[in-house]
Design brief:
By secondary structure, the protein is α+β, with helices and mostly antiparallel strands. Helix content is 27%, strand content 23%. A hairpin with a 2-residue loop joins strand 9 and strand 10.
Length: 533
């Protein structure tokens, strides 16, 4: 659309949404709690049927900000109004550091404040989920068809076996790759990684590899999942999108989810769902809402003096995300430019018995060091960082601190709780050093700035002082068939009716790579399951 058309459409959206907001006391067919990545997909797919009334509720505000539209501004959103600003409790294994757990609080959720990287997840991830859920609807082959036929609008070199061209999400390879990016992939090849034509084709079936990253950008601007899925439908009379509306409880009629309670414009409001309620608040607030609605572990509900509706011991457990550690190199000049986004992605396994890569690394200009590790580094005028992400073995937990919606959760991230994680991180840093010192980077890399020593004892302290998060929190309402599962293969919450979860909470384990694309799959699956019913 040209500028005039865009402005006219925006005016129609504002007018229609004002009218719809005045009708929230009229029952809806479906209520979706949370306009993050998955929630936006669910709401849009349901609202595609003009006979279905859908309410999408978001605690954050609008996305009409340069900080959202310009993908290079994502670091400026951290700690601001569009970030929930969670902080995990201090961890003795991190030398008593408390890790910031950012999460999007804006229309589009994380897709509005992330680095815009599109990473589908490995074949083994999806087949693992299918096995855990005992349902081939989650298998790699099924999900690959979903990506190709419904989700992706791939504008890179044609790859019809793996990439779609007519979907909803515009995806492109990194534009105008720098010479350094080619050298970095050559360095990765020299240590045994295969270079692939794109990051989401055959590489997601391999033991590792490198490629240019894929991004959800167009003409240099972010294309969030909200903008791709929901915004084009917001002139419709059957879709209501409320922002700055904080969901506080799901209310039940017997064991059926019937209403959603939320604070909006200074009042406590309830809206009715005649068919189903979907919780898509992310891996921190989804378990909180479930527990505050009476669904969760017996000890949590009892301690918060919440009447139990359904005891599910897995709610809030299995918390994990990709942990991050930096490897910093001096450089001869500014080799990566000023954009705080990587053009390359490298994946590898630290142990041969693993079914998929547990490590990935991105490259960015500057030194991404914690204050503790920066204090020990002699930082040069120019440097670059291999930011290394790892899928951990450790699992944490979300705890309530009270029954009120305003009571914050207590986040026990439990980083390094499993000894295997330290061993893997030492291995990962060593592999990254081999890659960074490869002859292919000669003339572009200087000395290794951090870690300052590769003695195991020194590396251990470097990791304890430097480990942080990639903000891919997952797993706290996991899908499966065992006693610790919270939802079944159709994402229905066990023991109640009319309630589903659709976000990264349902992942039994986090995917290889960034989680935006898998969350789109989760949203697509949830909507399809609901429409089939």
């Amino acid at each position: 659309m040209d500028t005039v058309t865009q402005e006219a459409f925006a005016a129609q959206v504002r007018h229609n949404q004002q009218e719809q907001a005045a009708r929230i006391t009229v029952p809806f067919d479906f209520i979706v709690c949370g306009a993050g990545t998955s929630g936006c997909v669910v709401a849009a797919r349901l609202a595609a049927d003009p006979t279905v009334r859908v309410l999408l509720i978001e605690a954050g505000g609008h996305d009409e900000s340069e900080l959202v539209q310009n993908p290079n501004c994502w670091p400026m959103t951290l700690g601001g109004a569009m970030d929930w600003g969670f902080v995990a409790q201090a961890n003795p294994r991190l030398n008593d550091r408390a890790i910031g757990y950012s999460m999007g609080k804006v229309l589009g959720g994380g897709s509005s404040i992330n680095v815009s990287t599109w990473s589908r997840g490995h074949r083994a991830d999806w087949d693992f989920y299918a096995a855990a859920a005992d349902d081939d609807a989650w298998s790699y082959r099924t999900v690959l068809d979903l990506y190709r036929n419904r989700i992706e609008q791939w504008v890179g070199a044609p790859d019809p076996d793996y990439r779609g061209q007519h979907g909803t999400v515009r995806v492109q390879p990194a534009q105008e790759p720098l010479p350094f990016s080619d050298c970095l992939m050559a360095a990765a090849e020299s240590v045994g990684l295969t270079r692939f034509a794109n990051a989401n084709g055959r590489m997601m079936e391999a033991d590792g590899g490198c490629a240019l990253v894929d991004e959800t950008l167009h003409n240099g601007k972010r294309q969030s999942i909200f903008r791709s899925y929901v915004y084009p439908l917001m002139t419709r009379p059957n879709l209501t999108v409320l922002s700055e509306a904080h969901v506080t409880r799901v209310l039940f009629d017997g064991r059926r989810a019937r209403k959603v309670e939320f604070s909006y414009q200074g009042a406590v409001v309830t809206a009715e769902a005649t068919r189903e309620v979907v919780v898509s608040l992310g891996a921190i607030h989804t378990p909180k809402l479930l527990m505050q609605s009476g669904i969760g572990p017996a000890d949590e509900l009892k301690q918060a003096d919440i009447t139990a509706l359904q005891i599910l011991e897995g709610v809030g457990r299995n918390l994990h995300d990709h942990v991050a550690i930096a490897s910093v190199w001096a450089s001869e000049g500014d080799v990566l430019g000023s954009a705080p986004r990587s053009q390359t992605a490298c994946f590898w396994k630290s142990r041969p018995e693993l079914d998929s890569p547990n490590f990935y690394t991105y490259a960015s200009s500057g030194a991404y060091l914690t204050p503790e590790n920066a204090a020990r580094a002699d930082l040069p005028a120019h440097c670059w960082t291999q930011l290394i992400g790892m899928r951990p073995q450790s699992r944490g937990r979300i705890h309530l601190t009270g029954a009120a919606a305003t009571d914050p959760v207590r986040i026990d991230a439990n980083y390094l709780g499993d000894a295997q994680d330290m061993a893997d991180l030492i291995s990962g840093l060593t592999f990254a050093r081999e890659m960074g010192s490869a002859p292919a980077l000669a003339g572009r890399n200087g000395h290794h700035v951090a870690p300052h020593s590769f003695d195991d004892a020194d590396l251990t302290q470097y990791i304890r002082n430097g480990l942080t998060t990639f903000w891919h929190q997952s797993g706290t309402a996991r899908m499966g068939c065992d006693a610790m599962s919270v939802v079944d293969s159709k994402l229905r919450v066990y023991g109640v009716e009319g309630l589903r979860v659709a976000d990264a909470s349902i992942l039994p384990r986090v995917t290889a790579g960034n989680t935006m694309a898998p969350c789109v799959v989760i949203g697509e699956q949830a909507a399809q399951f609901m429409l089939e019913r």
